[in-house]
Automatic annotation (TrEMBL):
Protein name per its UniProtKB record: Phage minor structural protein
Keywords: Membrane, Transmembrane, Transmembrane helix
Species for this entry: Bifidobacterium erythrocebi
Ranges annotated as spanning the membrane: 6-27
Keyword Transmembrane helix in annotation: yes
Amino acid sequence: MQLLDQIVAWLVPAMCGGAVTVAAMAARYGHAVIHGLRVLLRAEIIRIHREYVQSGRPIPVEVMDEADDAYDAYSALGGNGTGTKMHNEIMAAHNGPTRKEHS
């Protein structure tokens, strides 16, 4: 019985310490992934804004849908500010023909 008590006394703290370490690593990794996704989504919004709004070109409906989807995900991941401003400008821009009509 004494051996079992010693094993439990050693094993429980070791397992708890390992679990805390794994949880901290998962949280750090999760934050990095979320930040990376937000950066990529913001870059896509910036690209669409530059390609269509800043150049004054009409935006195909499909591209507006892509910008809207990218912004929805960007916003859900905590992005705001500049991305919101650009999204609003994209949505207010002149609609052009669809990609199929344009080709």
